[in-house]
Specification:
Blueprint lengths: L1 H15 L9 H13 L18 H10 L14 H14 L8 H4 L6 H38 L1
Helix pairs in contact: 1-6, 2-6, 3-4
């Protein structure tokens, strides 16, 4: 148990603690990010890091909100927990996000909150980095366009 506590402390320090949304704690900020990104998705109500994620729809919605080309969200069935979780985890893995969770461990009444939070933090960091790359690309395109006009 001591080892698990140490691992959680390391994860919290290096993966979750630096998340800042609206000047909230890392956990609350990450939860708020999830709520904002999944707002309007059918059958997705993110209130916590356990029961809100156990049918896989919240994970799928987070991915779909950023990359709608990767998941047909409307085809997912809330009753097919294992299939939804497997799909979300497989898609995330193709994006380079490590497969930290097993669908069987998440499709339970109350999955481990810390494990789910760690995985969601990985999604957050991936999509935040992707957004920064998009912004940099847009800025570079703007500069190139301006240079073309000058030259």
């Amino acid at each position: 148990m001591l080892t698990l506590g140490l691992i959680w402390t390391i994860i919290l320090r290096f993966q979750i603690q630096d998340i800042s949304v609206d000047h909230m704690s890392a956990k609350d900020g990450l939860l708020l990010w999830c709520k904002k990104k999944t707002k309007g998705y059918a059958n997705v109500h993110v209130d916590n890091f356990h029961k809100s994620f156990n049918n896989g729809l919240a994970f799928a919605a987070l991915i779909h909100a950023h990359r709608p080309d990767l998941i047909d969200f409307n085809s997912l069935d809330p009753e097919n927990k294992l299939d939804n979780l497997k799909l979300a985890f497989d898609v995330a893995e193709k994006l380079g996000i490590a497969s930290l969770l097993d669908p069987i461990d998440v499709a339970v009444e109350k999955p481990d909150e810390r494990s789910v939070m760690t995985y969601v933090a990985a999604l957050y960091h991936y999509f935040a980095t992707m957004k920064q790359g998009d912004v940099a690309g847009q800025r570079l395109a703007s500069i190139v366009s301006e240079l073309d006009e000058v030259l």
